[in-house]
Amino acid sequence: MPLARGGTRTEHSTLNRVARYPREMEASGGFDDKRAPVQNANGRTDCRLANAVTAEVETTSMTRVTVWNENVHEQEHEAVADLYPDGIHGAIASALAERGFDTETATLQEPEHGLTEDVLAETDVLTWWGHAAHDQVDDEVVSRVKERVLEGMGLIVLHSGHYSKIFRELMGTTCSLKWREAAETERLWVVEPGHPIADGVEEYIELPETEMYGERFDIPAPDTLVFNSWFEGGEVFRSGCCYRRGAGRIFYFRPGHETYPIYHNEAIQQVLANACDWAAAGNGPEPSFGNADPIEAIDESDDRSVH
């Protein structure tokens, strides 16, 4: 289960590493939690596997996801509350926790919408679900989230979050689209099968009942399009869009209308987990900006500068 606000975060277990490296586990005879070199089936030291195991321990085991939800429909509509008794945020957080992520939740009703400076500073990836209360999100919180994304925090924007203040701010467009509620079939086709967000996913995901979103979707051209949707009524839609803004990675994922059990679908949960892995900040160098001293010795006597 996800942690309540203020709880202590925990690390991934060996079980989660087994899930991500099953063939290597079988070949090596198991993980060495002391991170010693791993012996392969021929008795030779497999540095590639040892590095993979170490990387899994040092990165994925530290991934901290804050699951944000406006939490309005669950309180106002019985059908939504029946589908998501712990809220949409609870369902998403539980699915991610079961896949080894360190999760907490935050909602619109909390002070500062649960997204204080301290919470965001400890968040590697923020997921965002909103629909009926976009205008109630405080602009100061939006600016705070944007700053963290530019610094490197990942952002996963879900379904009707396309109209959220934070997504429109980062996209710089209206993010408008066509829509229809008719409980129709959707097929999400994987159009970039080599992308990590598509790991473990079949050629397409079929959802028997969804809300339709249709083109034109007024967004900038994605850096990478991972999923493209077809709907029973004939429309198509760019459903899985990757972006970079500053040092941060952003993924927009379309499915998730509140009156359908979308977030109980295991394939959708797998995509969310993959997206959180992809969006989490790496350990690259922090860039420096402004007037810089030379790395090598050069003649700096030129006095023609106007600065």
Describe it.
By secondary structure, the chain is of the alpha/beta class. It has a single domain (64-279), classed as Class I glutamine amidotransferase (GATase) domain (Rossmann fold). 28% of the residues lie in helices and 24% in strands. The chain has 10 helices and 11 strands. The chain has helices spanning 14-20, 22-28, 47-58, 73-76, 78-83, 87-98, 117-121, 139-151, 165-171, 266-279, and strands spanning 38-39, 45-46, 64-69, 102-107, 125-129, 154-158, 178-190, 204-214, 224-231, 236-245, 248-253. The protein has a 9-stranded mixed beta sheet with strand order 4-3-5-6-11-10-9-7-8. A two-stranded antiparallel sheet has the order 1-2. Helix 8 (139-151) crosses helix 9 (165-171). The termini are far apart.
Extract low-pLDDT stretches.
Answer: 1-60
Helix content: 25-40%
Question: What's the alpha carbon Rg, rounded to whole Å?
Answer: 22 Å
Can you write the helix and strand succession as a string? HHEEHEHHHEHEHEHEEEEEH
Report how far apart the termini are. 56 Å
CATH topology: Rossmann fold
Judging from the principal axes of the Cα atoms, what is the shape?
Answer: globular
Please count the helical segments.
10
Strand order in the sheet with the most strands: 4-3-5-6-11-10-9-7-8
What is the correct CATH architecture? 3-Layer(aba) Sandwich
Write down the overall mean pLDDT. 84
Lay out the secondary structure.
Blueprint: H1 14-20, H2 22-28, E1 38-39, E2 45-46, H3 47-58, E3 64-69, H4 73-76, H5 78-83, H6 87-98, E4 102-107, H7 117-121, E5 125-129, H8 139-151, E6 154-158, H9 165-171, E7 178-190, E8 204-214, E9 224-231, E10 236-245, E11 248-253, H10 266-279
Parallel strand pairs: 3-4, 3-5, 5-6, 6-11
Antiparallel strand pairs: 1-2, 7-8, 7-9, 9-10, 10-11
Helix pairs in contact: 8-9
